[in-house]
Every structure is written in C-alpha cells, then in structure tokens.
C-alpha cells in the first residue's frame, strides 16, 4: 500500500521521478528558476502551453547544458487546441519552444475549456487520437490527461486505442479526491499531484505542523512524503533554491500508518477552487 520509491513506473514501463518540479506561476525569472531547480537536483520539469514559459525552460535546459536523456519533460495541450490539426500543431510548438524533438509525457490539460461546452468529449477524443499518433511515432514516451475526473475518463476509455497512463490532479492533504484516486487505481492510471503543498496554504496549518514536528521535518516535507507514500508522484513549485532542495529531501523518514490515517481524515482545506466542471 505504501511506497517509498524515488521513482514511479507508468503503466507502459516508463519511469517517472517521485518528485518533479512544477513551473506554473513563478513570479521569478523563469530561466533562472529552472536553472536553480536543475542545480538542486530536479530531473523532471513540468510545464504546459498555458504556462507560457516553455521557451524559458528550453533556454534554461540549453544554458545548463543537461543531456536530453537525463531530463523528463512533461507538457500539456490546452483544450482549445484539441483537434486533429490543432493538437499536432500545439505539440510541435511545445517541442520547438522547449528545444527538443520529443517529450517524455504529454497531457490533455483540462477536459474542457469552458464548463458548459457540450461538445467537449468529441474534442477530447479527437485530441486523444493525435496523442496516440504521437505515441506510436515515438515523439512522446507517455501520454495522459490532467484534471480528468472519472466521468471524463470513462467515455474516453470507451474509445481510446491507447489508455491514458497518468492523470495529473490537484491532490494534497485536505483535498485527496478519494473517489477519483480509487477509480484511477482500479483503472491502472497513475495519479500525479499538482499543488501538493496546497499552494502554500497548508504550510502554517497547526494540525499538520503537529505531525511534522514528530518527524523533525517541515510541513512541506511531510505533505510531499504523505503523497509519495500514497503512491502519488508530486510536482511542488518553489522560487527558492533552498526550498527546492528541501522538497527533494523527503526520503529519510517514513510517516507511520496512524499518521497517514490522521492526515487522510483531516477535513477539507487548501483547495485551489479550480474544478474541471466549473468556471
Ligand atoms: P516559494 O516560491 O516562496 O518557495 P504548490 O506547489 O503546492 O503550488 O505550492 C507552491 C508554494 O509553496 C509557493 O508559494 C512556494 O513559495 C511555497 N513553497 C514551496 N516549497 C516550500 C517549502 N519547502 N517551504 C515553504 N514554502 C514552500
């Protein structure tokens, strides 16, 4: 039930780091922020067309001089780019900006661009066919979705030739989306956590601090370790190299079953307010 691995394995055998680096909404200079993350030891960089930082990430990778096969690069297609030609073009544009000819993982960012889009499923299926084509062509090592709940995945799975390998969701103590997690487990789709620290809203939470002090770790480290033990890889963000390093240093302790249970039962907190079926 518990995992202490520094790596997870996607359903197709591709290895994914347990702790990756999230690059959304960094106030700091994007290039230097990614260079710091690489220097801190991150080997998974998470981005998306919507973050508008793929060019900066490409620049950072070039400046840092890291070999392409040493880094796991994930990007995402925005729902307005779902369609045969549009998804192909979005993928090529992401690759060009990132300075690569392939991605390690490519995800459909959200199931729909607007909550009331009654045609979302047709667009998702059309985009998904392109993801399958890219996978077959070896342009991407793994394909998946993000912010898909069971009722978005079920109809996609009915027609998909290749099943999504991962689903990147908001997951953290206080918002564990247990219904979706159980469904993903049943389907053999790896969950991955965005905002694993609840966008910093959980870092001063006294009920979480009470557990963190027992292990001599920070709330951030406890929150990340909790998710990894739940079998969920994480992609925390930070603009500080010191905190980037601390967030990678989560393998020297193990959260006990009673504390895992306590953290799993805390009432909801830290939710971003973002939901795939709401505006
Ligand atoms: P900062 O950039 O100043 O480090 P999430 O990944 O859940 O969205 O959370 C990101 C937020 O958490 C950022 O505001 C970041 O601020 C903060 N943060 C990340 N790591 C830590 C840490 N180890 N300790 C305190 N705050 C952190």
Overall radius of gyration: 18 Å
Helical amount = 40-55%
Low-confidence stretches: none
Order of SSEs: EEEHEHEHEHEHEHEHHHH
Number of helices: 10
- In CATH, what is the class? Alpha Beta
Could you please describe the fold and organization of this structure?
It is a single chain. The protein is α/β, with parallel strands linked by helices. Helix content is 40%, strand content 13%. It has one domain: TIM Barrel (Alpha-Beta Barrel), CATH 3.20.20.100. A seven-stranded parallel sheet has the order 3-4-5-6-7-8-9, covered by helices on one side. The protein has a two-stranded antiparallel ribbon with strand order 1-2. α1 packs across α2, α2 runs parallel beside α3 and α4 crosses α5. It is globular. The chain starts with 6 loop residues before the first strand and ends in a 14-residue tail after the last helix. The model has no long low-confidence stretch (mean pLDDT 96).
